[in-house]
Amino acid sequence: MMRRVCAHEDAALAAALDATRTTPDDLAAHLEACDSCRDLHTIASALHDDSAVALAEAHVPSAGQAWWRAELRARQEATALAARPITVATGIAAAAVVGLLASLTGVLAWWLQDWLGKSTVLQALADLVTASAWGAPTGLRLAIWLCAGAMLVATPVLLYVALRDE
Questions:
Q1: Which residues cross the membrane (predicted)?
Q2: Any residues with CB less than 8 A from the CB of 98 and at least 6 apart, and which?
């Protein structure tokens, strides 16, 4: 259902937005008689007053402050963009370390076999890991095993550095 438009709505709106807030006598009499014009005048006056208050209370930063914020944001975005390849490379390096540790564990399992001793269950597990393919231990193999252990300890630290959010 369409609302019938009053011929005085434009005048009522102009009076509501008038800075002097003076309403001609003929319009005031019409506002008392016409509900749609009265509602329009009331709502437009309230919105006009609210916008005036909002404009008075608005704090616009200075040009220097706006420029400084823009520069700061641009620097932060550039830093984040530059750090992405470094983060990816660190993650790849951490994955490579984990892979190296896994392969060295298989190569140096003879030491685990000697360390476990003669227990039959543990011996069977050690035989399963080493498949009895490795000979007697040497100093080089022991050094490699110690390096692998050090890498095993360093892996969580590297993963933390690679995956942390700053």
A1: 86-112, 142-163
A2: 155
**Nearest partner of 15 among 42, 54, 51, judged by Cα:** 42
User: Which of 115, 109, 114, 111 shows the shortest CA–CA distance to 130?
Assistant: 109
* Per-residue pLDDT, 132: 40
In the chain, the amino acid numbered 133 is: A
Domain ranges of the chain: 9-57, 84-163
Inform me whether the pLDDT recorded for 115 exceeds 90: no
pTM to 2 decimal places: 0.36
Contacts of 114 (CB under 8 A, 6+ apart): 137
Extract the tokens encoding 119: 């227990």
**What SS3 string covers 63-91?**
HHHHHHHHHHHHHHHHHHHHHHHHHHHHH
* Residues 101, 107, 112: CA angle, nearest 5 degrees: 90
Separation in Å, CA 9 to CA 16, 30, 35, 42, 77: 10, 10, 11, 12, 52
